[in-house]
Amino acid sequence: MVTTLPKVDVVTVGVGWTGGILAAELARAGMKVVGLERGKDRSTADYLHGHDELRYAFRYELMQDVSKETITFRNTRKQRALPMRQLGSFLLGENVGGAGVHWNGQTYRFFPYDFEIYTQTVNKYGRKKIKPGYFIQDWGLTYEEIEPYYDQFEKTCGISGEENPLAGKRSNPYPTPPMKSTKALDTFSRATKELGYKPYRIPSANLSEPYKNPYGLQINGCQYCAYCERFGCEYGAKADPVVAVLPAAQETERYTIRFHANVTEVLYDGESVKGVKYVDVLSREEYVQPAEVVALTSYVMNNVKFLLMSQIGEAYNPNTGKGVVGRSYCYQILPGSTGFYEEEQFNTYMGAGALGTSINDYYGDNFDHSNVDFLHGGVISMTQTGKRPIANNLVPPDSPRWGKEFKRNSLRYFNRTLTVVSQGASLPHRENFLDLDPTYKDAYGLPLLRMTYNFTDQDRKLHQFMTKKTAEISEKMGASKTVPTPTLGDYSIVPYQTTHNTGGAIMGKDPEDSVVNNYLQHWQAENLFVVGASAFAHNGGVNPTDTVGALAYRAAEGIKKYREKGGSLV
């Protein structure tokens, strides 16, 4: 028997950054909001004894349970997709706060080029610069239009940073000063300046000093403990949804979170959505939550899966190239070079998730692409996120894998290595997409999402280019031996790379080539908003969270407008 609950103004599916931002904004605007979270409640008190590398970093305490919900994966359509049985390439969050709890806190903005990549590319290089098979398109809004929402999210988080000389213009400085510097970061800054580049400190959600955000919520100063990525912050010094937005919604008494609520269907009648159906994962009881507005605020994969299962919009067909739901899935590439030093020592076991220095001289179209066979670029950084003892044991590649010499090199180089890292942009390709698996099902009998993905010629050429640049910087930093990352092969679902997955329900100007408009309002269901990195028309060469937060604030504004006037917002 299915129990139908009282109707509310808004129901959000997922309680992470996007669900939290919508809850805070809409409940404070007077709406009754319900957030459905399939995991459990938690707070900073849960992490008071959380520096357990084995439990959190390797056994994934904060992550999605893939025995109940996972994806299937294949590189090409000719292969049979198989279930991902253990988290590897990316780490999907679960429980309140979602992936926003275990993130590093690197809070870069995308560049003006990202939002108008098609127009700027064609205007400068001509249409032939875009190769067949790639879906290159503008986002449906400009950097100038999204900038106020970037500013709003950064003030919510209290981001610590400094002006990036190559980025889009800012309306305000960062709310707090940049984090401390270190010997490693100073070495990178010196080398990049000598090479003619423009280094700046990474914008960080690990705060340099205590801060009270516009909601009146306190975020504390970072302790540089090195337990950010894959961990929750017991100090409340890393801006996350639990610290920075959810209390603002809860104090209105118009916001309710229902835990252990696994959504199985968005109720759609062909014109509008009526609410959602969910299962209480503890009691196995089914419920319908009616709502005037439904907001999908889960992770990329789940947002797309909900649309496909509920048949809202036309699913992408790789044979014809038609359909938009599931199209334009993107990931990233990670070029880099590790330097081994004979004399200099660096204490890289202290750090923070977003402690670092970057250059953007090779990001977007900040350099001339006339004589290279790829588009876009990426950030190059020196980060000191804090090494941890189980995960790190860098030795020169000619070292034995065990024995006396291996132990000697382990002891010698544990504080004599630095890695210059890069994130390269990912552009959507016709053969990279998400759909429903025809064979495998989840714990509730629903089809698993299937990922078909491989690196493309664009990825490989960009990877080669950026690897060379990182090696040049490593050598300039004084490394006695520099080891570049290997040539890019096929994408593998293991090992870990980044949790920077995007696309599948992209935004745009036209329902012919996008799922949502620039308020993230669904073209085929005006009271449905699909909020998150699923809306990205491509993936940039930096971390996506700042753009996710900015789009969430814009979506919240869109929902307010829709509730006042109804209809399409564009």
Automatic annotation (TrEMBL):
Superkingdom classification of source: Bacteria
Species of origin: Pontibacillus salicampi
Similarity comment text for this entry: Belongs to the GMC oxidoreductase family.
Pfam families attached to this UniProt entry: GMC_oxred_C (PF05199)
Protein name (Swiss-Prot/TrEMBL): GMC family oxidoreductase
Keywords: FAD, Flavoprotein, Oxidoreductase
Residue span, Glucose-methanol-choline oxidoreductase C-terminal domain: 428-552
